[in-house]
Amino acid sequence: MPQTSARGIVILTGAGTSRESGLHTFRDPDGIWSRVRLEDVATPEAFERDPARVHGFYNARRRALLSDDIGPNPAHRALARLEAEWPGEVLLVTQNIDNLHERAGSKNLVHMHGEILSARCLRCGVAGPWSADMNLETPCPACGQAGGRLGALRVDVVWFGEMPMAMDRILTALEACELFVSIGTSGSVYPAAGFVQDVRERGRAHTVELNLEPSEGHSLFAERHYGPASRVVPEFVDRLLRDGLGGTS
Ligand code: BV8
After folding, report:
1. From the candidates 55, 76, 111, 113, which is the catalytic residue?
2. What is the CA(144)–ligand 1 centre distance, in A?
3. pLDDT in tens, 131-141
4. pTM tops 0.85, yes or no
């Protein structure tokens, strides 16, 4: 059976994709980093220094995500449709720790910065689904251990200075893809912000930025469309499914 020639697509999403679902971004004027310093809540040193504060930061974001008025928006749904209808592989790499891509139906998905609805044990290393608040006394559901200066559990996300997840899989997909689309990200956090350069260096893939406004790396993209993700992403997906790769300009 000949390998289909349909070409692979890699999509990178950031917090702007979830903004119209009601979740805050990081670096917009009303963003998360305008209210708290990342050095105080999103690094291993912050957790060592004040684990209760870090638990409180993620407990609040987890509760917000699980509230009834938060759900996928048309951008999440358009990306799930692209995966279902595109004849080649579509790998969705998200920097987001929410579960809105899954809830929209995306399956071929990598959370390179982890997931807020997962917890990891500091003692046995086992990670698993977690939707409740977490504190220093919470026991690990896998090994039962609890207590200690840092407690037993941490949120299963990638903090600054920690290695992002699934990098081998991501870099392999970037190497093979014919289309790289960056959506809703400021392009200020590495290695994700460097993916477009990785793709350009291979000289074959088309690169597209879909964002509310030009990102830090906007000049690196061959094609750019600006506006809210809930409009710009469905429009782009419709065009791509109608006209194929040659149709994008
Ligand atoms: C690593 C998870 C190496 C947690 C996050 C100095 C010291 C130490 C490290 C570094 C350093 N200098 C550089 C680094 C590397 C560092 C880094 O890049 N720092 C930056 C600040 C300079 N990176 C790391 O540390 C990474 N790890 O390098 O490891 C290593 C090597 C070997 C061994 C060990 C380690 C790890 C980075 C991951 C950190 N974790 N999050 C959590 O979420 O709490 S990062 C955080 O930023 C989120 O994941 C977020 O997704 C990511 C990027 O932000 P964006 O998603 O882009 O969000 P932002 O608000 O910035 O932008 C939103 C965009 O949306 C805007 O452009 C806006 O216009 C747009 N928008 C808004 N509304 C809409 C919209 N678009 C469309 N529609 C709308 N409606």
Report:
1. 113
2. 33
3. 999 999 999 99
4. yes
